[in-house]
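thoughts on these tokens:
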Amino acid sequence: MTLSTNHVYPVIWHNDNDSVSLIDQTRLPNEYTFVEIHHSEDMARAIKTMIVRGAPAIGVAAAYGMYLGAREIKTSDRTEFLQNLDKVAQLLRSTRPTAVNLFWAISRMLKVAYETLGTVEGIKQSLFQTAQAINIEDLQTCQAIGDNGLAVLPTTPEKLTLLTHCNAGALATAGYGTALGVVRSAWREGRLERLFADETRPRLQGAKLTTWECVQEGIPVTLITDNMAAHCMKQGLIHAVVVGADRIAANGDTANKIGTYGVAIAAKAHNIPFFVAAPLSTVDFELADGSKIPIEERDPTEIYQVGDTILTPEGVDFYNPAFDVTPAELITAIITENGAIAPDKLAKSQLKQLPIGLNPN
């Protein structure tokens, strides 16, 4: 498989000093800077504060965080090592409750640790190899998602205008992206006229990150506020919607950045196909439906403050859920590395019997 020439990689391992560089996504688009991570606690903090964000990217970062934590454990006793590694896993799990790739990656790393025979040093080496494998696999997975998405986009018109919400691009993955992977593949094959990007309140990932990625590659992009999406659909400006996902239940209900549900309702009302692009590792087959997906609530300062400017009067209450759940019946298909799957067929896929974290390599 030939990977994209895109060079935006949010999680980079350095062999020379055993560290991870993360693009500091809180500083984009004005500053393109990196944060160097040497310890598991620093990785947990970076995930929590959204220096690294996007479900697949969080999974890759967590895998490296597990290895960094393993390297910090100073014992040759296997039982003691595994007990301390469980504590590292618990720390990383506590950072973002909705993104299932986080838990999937941690579970996979723990499985390798417990199943690797031999010395503690041998376990650490196996963990490092697994973290690198997760990283490489995600790059390959996103390329496949992009190409599979291209295959199911509307056939007319020849050049499409797509809408996306939040950022599900290279910055949200190991590189290339899920929803933006579909956009990139469409652009590569001459099928894309333009991308419309919702700004994505309150953290503005669409305005800050999605548009930044498009500008880097010369992809035509138009920024709109979240409440303009339905109007643009009514005006005939949107041919299809493609979004990412942080967790998908077994029945196809999908948790994504807050505001996605409203976009899906508007798409349904205007008979516009609505696609979710995500790796199979984002599917939590242990959850029957979306009502069981935990929804992270974030600091209200994201709502009432922009920079140093306070937007609201004293005495106002706030509600700041980071995600909402789009019901499966509003989703045309879930685009995965194995192809596009109708939501009601998801539970019958080949991974049905495998618990989260036990996906084969």
Notes: Residues 120-152 form the longest helix (33 residues). The radius of gyration is 20 Å. DSSP finds ten helices and 16 strands in the chain.
